[in-house]
Amino acid sequence: MHRTLTKSTLVVGVAVAALAACGTGTERRADEPRVTKAAVPAPPKKKQVRGLPGMPPVLDPRDVYAADRPGKLSPVVKDFPSRVYVPNTESDTVSVIDPKTYEIIETIHVGRQPQHVVPSWDLKTLWVNNNRGHTLTPINPKTGKAGKPVEVHDPYNLYFTPNGRYAVVMASLDRELVFRDPHTMKRIKTEPVTCYGVNHADFSLDGRYFIVSCEFSGELLKVDTEKMKVVGQQKLPFDGAMPQDVKVSPDGKRFYVADMMADGMWVLDGDKFTEPELLPTGKGTHGLYVSRDSREMYVSNRGEGTVSVFDLTRNKLTKKWRLPDGGSPDMGGVSADGKVLWLSGRYDAEVYAIDTRTGAQLARIPVGSGPHGLAVYPQPGRYSLGHTGVFR
Q1: Which of 281, 365, 310, 335 is nearest to 105 (CA)?
Q2: What per-residue confidence (pLDDT) applies to 48?
Q3: How far is the C-alpha of 100 from the C-alpha of 36, rounded, in Å?
Q4: According to the model, what pLDDT value does residue 124 have?
Q5: pLDDT lower than 50: segments of the chain
Q6: What pLDDT score was predicted for residue 289?
Q7: What distances in angstroms separate CA 126 from CA 112, 118, 153, 222, 361, one per listed residue?
Q8: pLDDT at site 6
Q9: Distances (CA, A) of 74 to 79, 94, 102, 208
Q10: What is the rounded distance in angstroms from the CA atom of residue 385 to the CA atom of residue 392?
């Protein structure tokens, strides 16, 4: 059959022929070696952490403090006013400071010998530990008002298991770890201990155990969180040791334990629970606070009025800040934006605000007698493990 070619048909035919001649760029000549395109390696997967049952998932196995970045406030606390709550152990009061003006805006009367102000696991309540009054006073951080005290015997300090299932009362003189309902504080299980003066603790990366310091007998405990049972105990290798605050490293591989008589930090492998090594920091080493970028830890040296700065990434001390008029820096916390370190002056009835970039003293605020475990609130984090604010 005879077919008439139009002009447009000729143009298309020429184009197809041209493409066939040039190729598509993927053809290979018979004598041309085959080139295999290198595969792009997939980014390494983060190690999955098998956490304590019921515990919120670990955000970053390389950094247990990943949720504590500047200003990263939980929706639960985002509308709470920023305040510094200072328990005055000898005045039986809590001084409430406005961190913007450095002024006391309220004084709350509580029970006998308040030691620490502790954020609850769900972030909704601040618990004042009235040690010798044998009560916990709840404070509503949204209104700043105190509620009805709850009877709890010998509450020197207070922690919460990472799954929020239990509150753990550090009954220092009773020589007990008391596991309680985190809301009603009803006693659930009592774990007697043979050491003396249980006071501070921190939890492992996976939340399955925690390390406890025993101040008056110079010992450390390892406690199985789920079983609520002491599984390890050791005496610190220093005559007269008095361990205080405890903090886990960002990667969870080490625990740091402040010791006010050994004048430094014990560095401990928590998993193996072997004998720790001492890193000298200053006289009367007491409180340990991690920076908002997880790179540094601030170490308060109560006996010499200084703060040592420990570089967590390089595993070394890099700076020492000295309070201009001396003092007794004790317990405290870091502001939500990470720019200010707040510490109580235990023996000087005052509170210090310190610039975390320069170490300069920003304020020195007179408070009641014997200020101790102050809480800066709110702080970033998904939930609280207790003390003056240990967040994850």
Answers
A1: 365
A2: 82
A3: 63
A4: 98
A5: 1-33, 35-38
A6: 98
A7: 17, 5, 18, 27, 27
A8: 41
A9: 10, 25, 25, 24
A10: 8
